[in-house]
Design brief:
Blueprint lengths: L16 H16 L13 E2 L10 E6 L5 E3 L2 E3 L1 H14 L4 E6 L5 H14 L4 E4 L1 E2 L1
Parallel strand pairs: 1-7, 2-5, 5-6
Antiparallel strand pairs: 2-3, 3-4
Length: about 130
């Protein structure tokens, strides 16, 4: 007696493919909405006139009331900020530096950054203020 093997057909269920695609779309949308920018809570000084700049090519230096320095939202010191400015300038010379300080910050803390920028001869600097 001869046995005949029957071949089983493998069928991919297409009913759940739309569900998988929909879940994947939701996942991608949620991941793309995450804001990776870190900010330091400060009270902005006010200005009579303000100019908007592009946010893509900015290097943000935050100064709080106590004089603590932050580079793009992360605690830092003056030497680290200086090295970061040098490396950023070598990669993209048109990068704008934003100095963001609290309203109550003494000018001596901001002056340390300005002296460093003066030594580096960096001229693309903005002070971020709150519009009235």
């Amino acid at each position: 007696m001869r046995l005949v093997r029957q071949r089983k057909r493998f069928v991919v269920p297409l009913n759940s493919m739309s569900d998988v695609a929909f879940l994947l779309l939701i996942f991608i949308m949620l991941v793309s909405l995450i804001n990776y920018r870190r900010e330091v809570k400060i009270e902005y000084p006010e200005a009579a006139a303000a100019k908007k700049t592009s946010a893509e090519k900015n290097l943000e230096i935050w100064v709080d009331r106590a004089g603590a320095l932050y580079l793009d939202g992360l605690p830092s010191d003056l030497k680290t900020i200086e090295n970061s400015i040098i490396s950023t300038y070598q990669e993209a010379p048109d990068t704008r530096i934003h100095i963001i300080a609290d309203r109550e910050t003494p000018f001596t803390h901001i002056n340390r950054i300005l002296q460093m920028l003066q030594i580096l001869q960096y001229r693309v600097v903005s002070f971020v203020v709150k519009d009235r």
